[in-house]
Design a protein that fits this description.
Helices cover 31% and strands 21% of the residues. The protein is built from 20 helices and 22 strands. A hairpin with a 2-residue loop joins strand 21 and strand 22. It is elongated, with a radius of gyration of 28 Å. GO terms for molecular function: D-glutamate cyclase activity. One of its GO terms (biological process) is glutamate metabolic process. Its main location: mitochondrion.
Length: 594
């Protein structure tokens, strides 16, 4: 059977028509404009032959001064007023439901013989004139294994709201109870279903209520106008999308449940970065610790974050002062620089004994152009049982976290016996503050994610792969970090993991599919401005920046921790062409996504 496109309808006085059209163009996801009529025009020739908007919807809502006063099956009695009114026809997600069914995706509201659930969200549309309102969304339960297929079919139908704007916990959109929709009917989730949300044309109803015109009409939710136009999602489901137009979904959090989206092309680019940073120059067998897509999922999570806390510092040279090594700080600075360029708040937490030294290093890094703005430096000693909670959350309230992502890069991690070991099995606990407590506490706070970057398995966060560390790494049963992060990124050298993360974040910033999802479909999708692009590109790691950073560290007495595995040592600084080659590879792979 042929599937025809449906349309939502908003009818307003002609004096409001230009502002409402601008409102639609400013918010194309909830209000994809199919046709604007002339004043007093009953038909819509591009959409349907012989149409009459006064009778062609099963039911209409009548608004006076923004208040719903009645529901009627015909607007014939308002023909006189309609002479001075303009009809807007807006795309509708009902159009793709039949296509989803044909593709083998269960559509629960159809199965349950009810209307789809529609919710008023906490997301404010881009306002124009008197039109200022929240976005309305539809919710459809989708089996997790069907999420990619659903995203791909609906992404290619922008005139039917396009792909989902959120997948996961309804509370992210300000929806407290999915069993109580503002419009439509409750729809029950099946076993293994994930709630997926699409922008909805009922946003037009909210716009009418916000504007409070003397008289206005809309379709009644669920009672749309049926066009003569064949549903474009039918063609989308039968064609193979180009990699740049093929969304893939990834779980980035279980508490709260949250999925993110990126194009297939971008996913492959980040997987290429992950392969590059996983080269094993020391031939220590680190590939045994590798978990695919940890870099991708960590960076997707970071892209959704607003405030990030980074920690680094591995006092492997326990007989020297300072005992730190050069692996870690350059990678941390590289991550921080890119996060800053992406307008994230960033702070670094380090050992109290090293705070002053790290402040001087940060000042020099700014002077040398390694990073644009100094990152605030913090310390954490864990003086009381609830210190970590108060450090992470305002007033110790787990509903008010200061940070939504913690990143540890080459940070000594606590072993199962409570001690901290370098790769030779020497206990360095006396040099380490209990920053691990921040990670263990973060695991109990919804909305805070964590990442660990390491190259041996004794680093903070690598507890996620501790069994592999114990089995495959030298001294693994002793040194393995016991503290797990949500994402554990394995790199040949931890700094490389930081460089790879910076490049992956940059690639995501240039992915239209991801950016639309990140911004919940609000506003017009725009490519980055030239200034934005230049700022993002300037923040990326480079050979020159690494050389400057390593030189700064050496000036402050920091020694390499990788002597003997990465090549020559000059004036206390270990530096091997492998480092330069890797950064060049990363930048080359990243530049292909510009």
């Amino acid at each position: 059977a042929v599937v025809y496109q449906t349309a939502n309808v908003v009818i307003l006085h002609k004096s409001l028509a230009d502002d409402f059209e601008a409102f639609c163009h400013a918010n194309p996801s909830p209000l994809p404009l199919l046709y604007r009529s002339q004043p007093g025009e009953w038909g819509c020739p591009p959409l349907a032959a012989d149409a009459d908007i006064r009778v062609d919807c099963p039911q209409y809502c009548v608004f006076k001064d923004g208040l719903l006063v009645s529901r009627v099956s015909s607007l014939m009695s308002y023909s006189g007023q309609l002479q001075d009114m303009v009809s807007f026809y807006l795309g509708c997600s009902f159009s793709f439901e039949r296509t989803l069914q044909k593709a083998g995706v269960p559509v629960r509201n159809v199965e349950q013989n009810c209307n789809v659930s529609m919710f008023r969200t906490s997301l404010q549309c881009r306002g124009v004139g008197q039109f200022q309102c929240p976005m309305v969304v539809t919710m459809r339960p989708v089996p997790e294994e069907k999420l990619d297929l659903v995203a791909q079919i609906t992404h290619l139908t922008p005139l039917a709201h396009g792909g989902p704007i959120h997948i996961g916990d309804p509370a992210v959109l300000g929806i407290q109870d999915v069993s109580r929709p503002e419009y439509g009917d409750p729809v029950a989730l099946g076993p293994g279903d994930v709630p997926a949300f699409w922008a909805c044309g009922v946003t037009g109803v909210e716009a009418v209520q916000s504007c409070k015109p003397p008289l206005a009409f809309t379709h009644s939710p669920g009672c749309m106008f049926l066009t003569d136009r064949q549903d474009s999602s039918v063609f989308a489901s039968t064609s193979t999308p180009e990699p740049d137009q093929c969304p893939l979904t990834f779980s980035i959090s279980q508490q709260p449940l949250h999925f993110s989206v990126a194009s297939k092309a971008v996913v492959q680019s980040i997987r290429d970065l992950e392969k590059i940073i996983g080269e094993d120059p020391g031939e220590r067998g680190i590939r045994a610790l590798f978990v695919q897509d940890e870099l991708l999922r960590s960076c997707l999570s970071l892209s959704h974050s607003s405030s990030v806390l980074i920690t680094t510092g591995f006092p492997t040279h326990y007989t020297h002062n300072p005992p730190e090594e050069t692996d870690g700080p350059p990678g941390a600075i590289a991550i921080a620089a890119t996060l800053q360029a992406l307008q994230k708040e960033v702070a670094i937490v380090t050992d109290h004994r090293a705070l002053e030294m790290n402040q001087r290093i940060m000042e020099d890094a700014v002077k040398k152009g390694v990073i644009k703005t100094a990152v605030p430096l913090l310390s954490y000693q864990g003086n009381s049982p609830d210190s970590a909670l108060y450090f992470l959350c305002h007033n110790g309230d787990h509903k008010k976290p200061r940070f939504d992502h913690l990143v540890a890069i080459e940070r000594s991690g606590r072993a199962s016996d409570g001690n901290y070991y370098n790769m030779r099995g020497v206990n360095i606990k006396h040099l380490v503050d209990p920053i691990d407590d921040l990670f263990t506490t973060a695991s109990t706070i919804p909305g805070i994610s964590t990442t660990g970057i390491g190259d041996g398995g004794n680093e903070l966060g690598m507890g996620k792969v501790k069994e592999a560390v114990r089995e495959h790494m030298p001294n693994g049963s002793l040194i393995a970090c016991d503290v797990a992060a949500d994402f554990a990124i394995t790199a040949g050298v931890s700094n490389w993991g930081g460089y790879g993360m910076a490049c992956a974040l940059y690639i995501l910033s240039l992915c239209p599919i991801h950016q639309r999802y990140l911004h919940k479909g609000l506003g017009q999708p725009h490519p980055p401005t030239q200034d934005q692009h230049q700022a993002w590109a300037a923040s990326l790691p480079s050979v020159a920046k690494e050389e400057e950073m390593l030189s700064i560290l050496v000036q402050h007495g920091v020694r390499s921790g990788k002597t003997g595995t990465l090549g020559m040592e000059v004036d206390g600084l270990t530096f091997h062409p492998t480092h330069s080659d890797l950064i060049i590879k990363l930048r080359d792979r990243t530049s292909q996504r510009k």
